[in-house]
Amino acid sequence: MGNREDLLAGAKRCLMEKGYSRTTARDIVNASGVSLAAIGYHFKSKEALMNEALFEAMREWGDDLGATLAADVDPAATPLERFEAAWDRVIESFTRLRPLWLTQFELLGQIDHLPEVREQLVRGVQEARLGLAELFAGVDPEADPERARLTGAFYQAVLTGFLSQWLLDPDSALTGREVAAALRAAAEH
């Protein structure tokens, strides 16, 4: 790897260990083994480097989550069984990627001051909604874009809400079966 790649790797490591706003340029230098001047040379600023590291981590997370959710889905399963299995995989990703989830929540509180991050998160949420609509409801975003938008926004809201509860108290987090039961109960009223 070169200095640029080492800086990105170090910044991603700091992002996962310390979060976005608590990471200093010195932390990145220590994690990457590259000089402080290299940050300015390759990225112009620590913030630009942290943004790039965040965007790269989010892309990797999206690819990882997509592969995790698609893995071993029984084609004969009912939609509810597919939902439960997928939701259990989402919860597993909460555990594995907790630092990245925490960082995203941290950034939401600062989003008005981080326009580049806001723009990237908006694009990520829009893409996630379409993927969630396809995964959980079998909606093809190209064939029915409005249904995909609405369904995806609903599942994104559910995911974000359950994620915030899980971050606060993982021991009482709902399982896939419990989330499905909660949705059924809500639909009955």
Query: Number of helical runs?
Result: 9
Taking all Cα atoms into account, the compactness measure Rg is 19 Å
- State the secondary-structure class: mainly alpha
Mean pLDDT: 87
The N- to C-terminal Cα distance equals: 57 Å
Please outline the major beta sheet.
none
| Low-pLDDT sequence parts | none
Helix and strand element order: HHHHHHHHH
Give the overall silhouette.
elongated
- Strand count: 0
- Indicate the percent of residues in helices: over 70%
Strand content: under 5%
Topology (elements, then pairings):
Elements: H1 3-18, H2 25-32, H3 36-43, H4 46-70, H5 79-96, H6 98-108, H7 115-137, H8 145-168, H9 176-188
Helix pairs in contact: 1-2, 1-4, 1-6, 4-5, 4-7, 5-9, 7-8
How would you describe this structure to a colleague?
- This protein is mainly α and 189 residues long.
- 77% of the residues lie in helices and 0% in strands.
- The protein has 9 helices and no strands.
- The chain is elongated, with a radius of gyration of 19 Å.
- Helix 1 (3-18) crosses helix 2, helix 1 (3-18) packs across helix 6 and helix 7 crosses helix 8 (145-168).
- The relative contact order is 0.10.
- The model has no long low-confidence stretch (mean pLDDT 87).
- It has helices at residues 3-18, 25-32, 36-43, 46-70, 79-96, 98-108, 115-137, 145-168, 176-188.
